[in-house]
Amino acid sequence: ASMAHRARIDRLLIPFGQRQQGNARAASHELLVHGGFISQSSSGIYSLLPLALRSLGKITNVIRQELNAIGGLECSLPLLLEKGLWQRSNRWDTAGEEMFRVKDRKDVEFCLAPTHEESITDLIQRRTSTYRDLPLYMYQIDRKFRDEFRPRYGLVRCREFIMKDMYTFDTSEKNALATYDTVMQAYERIFSRLGVSVARVEADTGMMGGSLSHEFHIRSSIGEDSLLHCKTCNSAVNVEKEDRLRDGCKGNYPTTCDIEHSKGIELAHGFYLGTKYTEAMNVTIAQPDNTLGLIQMGCFGIGVTRILAAVAEVSRDDDGIIWPTSMAPFNVTIASATKASIETAEALYDQLQETGLAGEVVLDTRVRPSIRQKVADARLIGIPNVIIVGKQFSLDQLEVIKRTNQASDTTLLTIEQLL
Predict the structure, then answer these.
(1) Which whole-number Å values give the CA distances from 27 to 54, 220, 224, 315, 324, in the listed order?
(2) What's the pLDDT at 25?
(3) Hey, which residues does 170 pair with through a beta bridge?
(4) 155: nearest Cα among 4, 38, 254, 261
């Protein structure tokens, strides 16, 4: 037998059998707690447990691959940001009560980073002097903080969360707008690879400022954004942009707008910032004609922990979460039907570690729960495939229950077919 450690379902801090009706107002929140993904630490603040980190790791891998492919450079900026830096952009006083503020022992004021425009712009100012140094596309995947007045829906709206934020720096408006389109296309590929169906809508620029903005939403009844989709001209906007939609449609189409309303959870956004921050902080570079010009910026965010919650919210049934394979914590659970079949289950586990499923399999060889309960637990967590190892076990005919089928619906597959 292999001496390597085997992943076991009862060693993942999943609160099996402790399912009380909590006060969770979103189904996804309850499922992520009962499925052993998250545990509340305090209001709007959660511990991310091993299952969540496995799923989040898959999400961030896709994000990194797509951003690196367009020339993104990953960095990690401090979470504690000094007041002086935020005063350079005049945002210290306008950021409001959602910003956590702390003092160090010398009475210097800091904030817990809600976003990093100031930090990255300051860094780029120190490291660039001429147009030859650009473009630069810097991103990070890290914690952010927001002192939400009313945190709700678990990871959908909380006070500490993981976000991917990217900041782009270009020599001209023309180049910055081309970069904006490049990043938006990368976002489309990210969501497509994750198997998440999103609506891309025109949006208001809000606190970020700038002149061009899009958001990516997943449609959901608990969404806090109102989206409008016009079937006449096939464009979609956040409700703040309704007039713009109607005017644009009127100008180009003889018929009136046929508008569909929906609610969305915002998963990502992009802003073309222009010179909003570089002007405030005086960040210039030498242009080809030797004059000094302001650097042009864009900023782009993806709510990484929010993707986890939003997918759990929209992709579920009465049994639990239905993860797309791209973000399921494990791809396969091997469940032993009897005590006698535990060794066979472990041998199958070891065998699958030699295939493309290496690292994607978890064992359920608990002695107490019935096989029915084991299947139910795997379905709650959202694992795509359960292999049942019982008396009739045969390697040529693995008994598999797919998460997308009913719990009673078994398929017989070979290992090759499973792969």
Answers:
(1) 21, 11, 15, 11, 18
(2) 83
(3) 296
(4) 38
